[in-house]
Amino acid sequence: MNHAVAVPPDLIPATIAEIRQETPRVKSVRLAVGEGFRYRPGQWIDLAVNTGGETVVAGYSIVSTPATRGTIQLAVKSAAHHPVTRYLHETARPGDTVRISPSGQGNFHFERGMADEVVLLGAGIGVTPLVGILRSIHEQMPEVRATLIYSVTESNEILFWDELERMGLAPNIRCVITVTREAEDWQGHTGRISHDLLRAMNLPPDALYYYCGSREFIEDMTEMLKEVGIDEDRLVFEKWW
User: Whole-prediction pTM value?
Assistant: First the structure.
C-alpha cells in the first residue's frame, strides 16, 4: 500500500530496526514497535516522516504476522515521486525514528474461523497484505487451505520468492506465480491473471477471495471472479488510492 493521506493525530514513535533490499525495486523495512502493538493479518499502517521541512505520511501494508511481537515488517516498492517511499529507499537508516499508527488499520484481514479456504490474488507490490495473510496461515492455521496467485512483471521482482516456495510445500498451501514479461530463464506460468489461469486452478467456489490494488485491478478481478462462478459475497477487496 502506498498512498498519501493527511497526518493523523494519534501516531506513535517506532524505530527502524532493519532495511533489506529484497528485489531490485523493493526494500523491506522492519520497525521496532513495542510489545503492545496489535494488528490482524492483512492490515496496514500510516507511516509519517519529516522530510524537506514538512511531515509527510503514507500507508503501507504489514507483511509480518501478529505472532512476531515487538516488530513489524513492511515491503516498499521504489517510487521517486513519493516522498515517504523515497525517504525509506534513499535516506532511512537503522536507528531512525518514524511515527506510525498505534495499531493495524483497515477491514482487509483474515483470521482463524473466517473461512476454511482462502484464495489470494495479487499483482506486483499489491501482494504485500496477502503475504501477511499467507504467512499467518502457514505459521498458525494448518486447517486452512490457501492458494496464492501472484502476477509480477519480471521474475527478479518476485517478492520473498524463496519463502513462497517453502510455504508452497506445506500440504495446505499452494503458490502460483505468473510472469507477464517473458524471459528465457522463467519456466512457469506467463501472462497476467486471466480467466484461463483461474479456471485451470480449479478454485473452490466457497472460499474467501482476497485481492487489493489499483481501481483497475480491483475491477478486473471482480469481473473475472464473477465470470468464473464466484459469488459476490465471497469477494474481499481493498482499493488503494
Answer: 0.94
